[in-house]
Every structure is written in structure tokens, then in C-alpha cells.
Amino acid sequence: MKSKTLTKDKVNIITLGCSKNLVDSEVLSGQLLANQIDVVHENKKLDHNISIVNTCGFIDKAKEESINTILDQLELKRRGKLEKVYVTGCLSERYRSDLEQEMPEVDAWFGTMELPLLLKKLEADYKKELIGERLLSTPQHYAYLKISEGCNRTCSFCAIPLMRGGHVSKTMEEIVTEAENLVRKGVKEIMLIAQELTYYGLDIYKYRALPDLLNRLADVKGLTWIRLHYAYPSKFPLEVLDVISARTNICNYLDMPLQHASNAMLKAMKRNITREEMSELIDTIREKVPGICLRTTLIAGFPGETEDDVDELIAFLQKHRFDRVGIFNYSHEENTTAHELVDDVPAEVKSARAQRIMEAQQEISFEKNQEKVGQILTVLVDKKEAGRYLGRTEFDSVEVDNEVIIHSKKKLPIGDFVQVKITRAFDYDLEGELVD
Ligand code: SF4
Fold this sequence. Notes:
Blueprint: E1 10-15, H1 19-34, E2 38-41, E3 50-55, H2 60-78, E4 84-89, H3 90-102, E5 108-109, H4 115-121, E6 142-146, E7 148-149, H5 160-164, E8 168-169, H6 172-184, E9 189-193, H7 210-218, E10 225-228, H8 239-246, E11 250-255, H9 263-268, H10 275-288, E12 293-300, H11 307-320, E13 324-329, H12 347-370, E14 376-385, E15 388-392, E16 404-407, E17 417-425, E18 430-434
Parallel strand pairs: 1-2, 1-3, 3-4, 4-5, 6-9, 9-10, 10-11, 11-12, 12-13, 16-18
Antiparallel strand pairs: 7-8, 14-15, 14-17, 15-16, 17-18
């Protein structure tokens, strides 16, 4: 057996899937570092001896990507470039027994709640006192902050509760401490994430505590932008809107996945809300927070979906003019209640519908972006790429939303807020000049 005193381990973590997985990888890195183990993310240099693949098991495409990544790592191991390959995350949680048989060369598999076991395998101790300490893999000026784990909802298409379990909120103290730690490291923007943000607190405080949590986070000095991702529309706590309105460091931004807008589909998806109720909610949001940027995600090709359902969805998008829209093709997942239905929309029809929906949204997005031309907006400088600075406004989250191309004769520090006059607008991006 290899002794740590003879050869020092260097661990590479590869993260697939969503921002929640990324946070788990960052927590794992923080723990390894505290145990004096070298750790890197997505290391291309191949100077590590252990790989940990943090997998995603959300939909078919994500599963395929995770499996291919594990196979790539096993190939490196076969060629003698790696000593160990460990697998963790959602795919491992969901399909461990099958995968163990199919890929016996993987040295060990871990579920989503098995961080202490994974650390033990690496001869590291799980350090409870590190709660809230992470090794960021994002640029130092922004970070994701997970406020809860799991989900208590029963959306018929969703496999997440199978992999992440029921909803467990972190305490407000824990979250505020984590936010303060992040600010100390230079973070100016945090993106609050959870499977379902609005359920926050119901388990531990017995009430929907998101508004209180937001107020406490907004008090953290140095936090300039707080952004809300993944709010469930049914029984949405409207006080959240008052807090967004009142607190200047909470972005005028809300990511609310609606999944569909036809009543037949919403019912089959078990979303506990009707199109009319969603309409009313969106009107209230826009009324209480004028100028808010609304992002949503949708599913195309759910069992039983007709072209009429898609027309209804498009009409809904046109009526409410969402600022940002993402779309997935329906994926027929075992052990979900939707799996009992017939997956009757052919793959090419799902894709054609998704495209039709996105074409309608593209027009809306273009028109909304045109309205920004001539405005002076605060932009957070994210990076420099191919000689151009790229940033985001408070209306845009990382990776999924618009970017602003900033023209500047001056050198701009990454992570600084600057004023930019928008001069051109495209379907999904903006372009502008630095205002001195
Ligand atoms: S609220 Fe989101 S995570 Fe929870 S079951 Fe529904 S789709 Fe899945």
C-alpha cells in the first residue's frame, strides 16, 4: 500500500452537471486542502495521481457525459497516468450497483451524502469546523451559495429527489457565516442556489424563511450582488418581492423554472399550479419589482404534449415576455412518476418543439436587448477573452445569461464594477463603451 509519507497524493476533481455539484466539489477541495492534500480542479497537466469524478444524473445527456468522463479517466489509469479513479455525485448515488458491475476498474463509488467516507478513502479527516469553507473554482469575485439540499416536491418528471433526498435547509447562521467567508476571499456576488429556494426554512423553522434570510444576507458588508436561482412558483412567498425591492444589493433578478404553461401539461407534471395562477404571479412580480429580470426554464416533449400545448406555451411567453429562457428536451427517467406514462413524443419532435419555442423567445430577447441601447448600466467585469473584456449586468447570471462586451482603452481589473454605455444589442448579448 502506498504510504503518504513516501509519495504525496495530488487529487484532481472533475465536476459535471449543475452549480450545486460545483459547490460540493468546492467543499470537497476545502476539506482536502485542510488535510494537507494537494487538490486541483479540471487539471489538464496530468500531474495528479488521483481523479475524482463528481457526476450528474439529471437527464440522459448528462448521464452520458458523466459516463464518458469516467471512461476517459479509466483509460488514463489503464495507461498508467493515474493511480486511482473515484466517482461521486448524483449518477453514482442513483445507479451505483449497476455501475459497479459495469465499471469494476473504478476504485470506489460514493453517494451524494458520503463526503466523510470519500475523505476517509483519501486518508483525510472530515473537519466539521470547516463548514462554510470552500476552495473556490470560480473567479474570486463570484460564488454560488447553496442554502439547502434536496427537494420535497413531487414534480412527475424529476429524478432529483431520488438522488438528493428530501429538503434539508442550512441554518441562517451557517449561510451568513459562509457568505462572510466568501466576502473575505474577495467575492462580491453570490448566487443563491437550492433545488427549490422558496421551501427554505419550512423544515427547520416551520415557516418560509427566505425573506428573513435575504435580509440577513443583504446586511453582509461587501456583498454587492445577491442573485436568486430556482424558485418554485406554487405558493411563492410574496414577501420575497418586498425584500428584493427594498434591498439595493439584491439583484432585480429571479430565476423561476415554470417547466410549461399549458394546464394539461402542468397537471401531468404535477406542478401544483395552473397557467392562470402563474400569470397572476408574474403580473404581481413585475408590479412589485418594476424592471425585474425574469428567467425561466421549460421542458419540451413531455408525454402527451401536443402542438396545441406548445402553442399555448409560446403564447404565454409572448404575453409575459420573459427576459431569459432555457429549455430541455424531456428525458424519461426511471422511478419518476412520469415514467409510468408513455414517452410518446419522438426525439426529433421534442427538438423541433424546443427550437420553435426558442425562436419565439429569441425575438423577445432581441427586442428587450434593443431597449437597453443608449442606457448606462453597471457591469461586473468577469474576464478578458481574445482582447475583449466581458462582463454582466445585475440582470444576468453566470454562463446562462447575456454577456456585455466592454470596449475600453483603459485596463480594467477583473471583478470590478464599471459603468458601460450600451451601444449595440444582439439576440443574447450586449456591447458597450466604458464610461469614465
Ligand atoms: S421543484 Fe425542482 S428539484 Fe424539486 S421535484 Fe420539482 S423540478 Fe425537481
